[in-house]
Design brief:
Elements: H1 28-71, H2 74-77, H3 84-91, H4 100-104, H5 109-129, H6 148-151, H7 170-175, H8 200-204, H9 222-231
C-alpha cells in the first residue's frame, strides 16, 4: 500500500514523499516547501516549453516573411519561361526599376498577403497543369485588374509631362470613371503584336464627335498641330 504524507497528502509517482522522508514525520512547514518545490518545477517545465514554442514561431514567421520577400522580386517571376517576353519588355521600359508587385498588387500589407494566399497558389496550379493562356495576356485582359491606387503611388493626375505634342487632361478622364489602364495598359510590357489600348482608334471610340468632341486641339498642343500641317 502506498503511504501518503499525513500533512499535505502529497507523494511522488514512485510513492515516496516529495521531501524524501517518512510521510508520518513530515511537518507542515516541510510539506509546504515540498509543494513549493513542485510548483517551481512545473513553472520551469512550462517556461522551457514556451521558449521552444516561441523560438519555433519566430523561425516560422521569419521563413514566411523571407518567402514573401523573395517571391516579390522580378527575378522570381523570370523563372517561368512563359514570362520571358514580358520580363524582356519590362527591362526595356521606363518602369524597369519598378517592382512587379507595385503594379500587379494593390498597395498595402493586407492586399499583399491576400495575393500570396489566393492568387499565388492558383498561378502555381496553372503552371503545373499548363492550363493558362499562351502567350500570356496578349489581349491585355489583366489590365483591368490593375488599380489606379497602384499607379498613383508614383504618378499624379495633375503633374504629368506631355510627350509628342499631347496634353491629356488625366484628371478629367479620371472623373469620368476611366481607369489608368484604360489607355496605359502596355507601359511596362510593350510587346509587338500584343493589344495596346493607347492608339488613335481607342481615343476616337469616345472622342467621335457624338459622345465627346473630337477637335484635335483638345488633346494636342498648338505646336504639334502646326508641325503636322507643315508636314502635309
Amino acid at each position: 500500500m502506498v503511504s501518503k504524507c499525513a500533512d499535505c497528502d502529497y507523494q511522488t509517482r514512485s510513492g515516496e514523499c516529495i521531501l524524501g522522508r517518512d510521510p508520518r514525520k513530515c511537518t507542515t512547514t516541510e510539506a509546504r516547501k515540498g509543494v513549493g518545490f513542485s510548483r517551481r518545477a512545473f513553472v520551469l517545465v512550462i517556461s522551457r516549453n514556451v521558449f521552444l514554442l516561441s523560438a519555433l514561431a519566430f523561425f516560422l514567421v521569419l521563413g514566411f516573411v523571407g518567402g514573401i520577400a523573395y517571391t516579390c522580386r522580378p527575378q522570381f517571376c523570370s523563372f517561368c519561361h512563359e514570362m520571358e517576353a514580358d520580363i524582356r519588355a519590362w527591362k526595356e521600359s521606363n518602369h524597369r526599376n519598378v517592382n512587379c508587385i507595385s503594379c500587379h498588387v494593390e498597395p498595402g500589407l493586407i492586399a499583399l498577403l491576400k495575393d500570396k494566399m489566393t492568387v499565388a497558389p492558383k498561378s502555381l496550379i496553372l503552371k503545373i497543369t499548363g492550363n493558362y493562356e499562351k502567350p500570356i495576356n496578349k489581349e491585355s485582359k489583366l489590365a483591368k485588374d490593375i488599380s489606379d491606387e497602384s499607379c498613383l503611388q508614383c504618378h499624379t493626375l495633375k503633374n504629368i509631362t506631355p510627350s509628342q505634342g499631347l496634353k491629356i487632361d488625366h484628371e478629367a478622364h479620371s472623373k469620368l470613371g476611366m481607369n489608368c489602364t484604360k489607355c496605359h495598359n502596355r507601359v511596362a510590357h510593350e510587346i509587338k503584336g500584343y493589344e495596346n489600348f493607347l492608339t488613335e482608334e481607342s481615343c476616337f471610340s469616345c472622342h467621335n464627335g457624338k459622345v465627346l468632341k473630337n477637335d484635335c486641339i483638345i488633346c494636342h498642343t498648338e505646336g504639334f498641330l502646326q508641325k503636322k500641317k507643315r508636314a502635309q
